[in-house]
Amino acid sequence: RSFASIATPSSDDHVEIIEVGARDGLQNEKQAIPLETKIKLIERLAQTGLKTIEVGSFVSPKWTPQMANSSEILQHVLETPPQSPHPISYQFLVPNQRGFDNFLSTYSRLGYVSKSSNSEETAGYVANDKRLPSAIGTVDVSLFTAATESFTQKNTNCSISESLDRFRPIVTAAKALGLPVRAYISVALGCPYEGPVAPQNVSELAINLLEMGADEISVADTTGMGTPTTTRTLLKTLKAAGIEMPDIALHFHDTYGQALPNALVSLEYGVRKFDAAVAGLGGCPYSPGATGNVSSEDLVYMMESLGARTGVDLGALSEVGDWISHEVGRRNESRAGKALLAKRKK
Ligand SMILES: CC(C)(COP(=O)([O-])OP(=O)([O-])OC[C@H]1O[C@@H](n2cnc3c(N)ncnc32)[C@H](O)[C@@H]1OP(=O)([O-])[O-])[C@@H](O)C(=O)NCCC(=O)NCCSC(=O)C[C@@](C)(O)CC(=O)[O-]
């Protein structure tokens, strides 16, 4: 559909904001953020109307120490699901088999899967009958690779093709165990080590991941180098390669202030899912100088002003942004959030 039509709300003008602040937003913070703060953040986000929240990362704690308590977060979410207006999908990053094993051992401790020696193809586990609490929609596994060899090496210490080899058995097992799979493609619009990225590399990788069984691809502008022109070219290439827009989400960082215009261009191409972080938290450890994700508040503000529905309570989200910025000692990077709160105070 053309962008013009989005100005008129209609039943299919729903835009989903995938909140990544509790993972992408916090992973790069230098000081250790207490588990209680992370849990409070997740609980407060859950109350704002968001439907998908990325909350942890089963990476090596030597590489990303801030994410070391992801097992505790998974356990907490499953045992004490945050209150929310509707069921929420909680997402966890998994880089390799070891990370998936760590994820599954927590999932298994709580009775959702059991170890079984006859199930090699499902990572040694079988699904049990135990249902997720009603406040939880799904628990998703998010894999991540990148569009350039240099970034993949820096981020996960392997080549792109090795990363795909790592993913195949994880996808098979996750699907067999009923876990939805998301896959990130980092540096899709520019690499800090290799510069511009050929859109064909992104589309080939996306097709590979979809054929492997990924349910959704998050196309990430890790460096924030993307512009409306390069975003348009990338989306044209993805479409021409036969990739359906409902299968992708876009993940913009706002390093050069281009995240909102890029999101606007993406709407024109039919993209309806966007990753964002409350208060614009974030920054990738392997992308020097990259600043935070596009702020969720700013994205909600823009989408709603265009007539799209996000289902998110912008006032409540702005308060969460203000609170977490204070907690981690960072400036609140959301323009809309700050403006809204200032207006309320008057
Ligand atoms: C992939 C690895 C683990 C390879 O790291 P490696 O060092 O090559 O791993 P290894 O297989 O050689 O193992 C070395 C040691 O690490 C352990 N190990 C191995 N794997 C794990 C694991 N999963 N969890 C815990 N421990 C693990 C393993 O058991 C072993 O322990 P030891 O025998 O020495 O005691 C590492 O490179 C890594 O953790 N990378 C992740 C870095 C990261 O967190 N990056 C940020 C997330 S991606 C991102 O932010 C981008 C995104 C998604 O937001 C989108 C965007 O904007 O682009």
TrEMBL record:
Pathway: Metabolic intermediate metabolism; (S)-3-hydroxy-3-methylglutaryl-CoA degradation; acetoacetate from (S)-3-hydroxy-3-methylglutaryl-CoA: step 1/1. Keywords: Lyase, Metal-binding. Its EC number is 4.1.3.4. It catalyses: (3S)-3-hydroxy-3-methylglutaryl-CoA = acetoacetate + acetyl-CoA. One of its GO terms (biological process) is L-leucine catabolic process. The keyword Isomerase does not apply. It is an enzyme of class 4 (lyase). SUPFAM superfamilies: Aldolase (SSF51569). Residues 15-318 form the Pyruvate carboxyltransferase domain. InterPro entries: Aldolase_TIM (IPR013785), HMGL (IPR043594), PYR_CT (IPR000891). GO terms for molecular function: hydroxymethylglutaryl-CoA lyase activity; metal ion binding. It comes from the Eukaryota. Belongs to the HMG-CoA lyase family. This is hydroxymethylglutaryl-CoA lyase. It comes from Eremomyces bilateralis CBS 781.70.
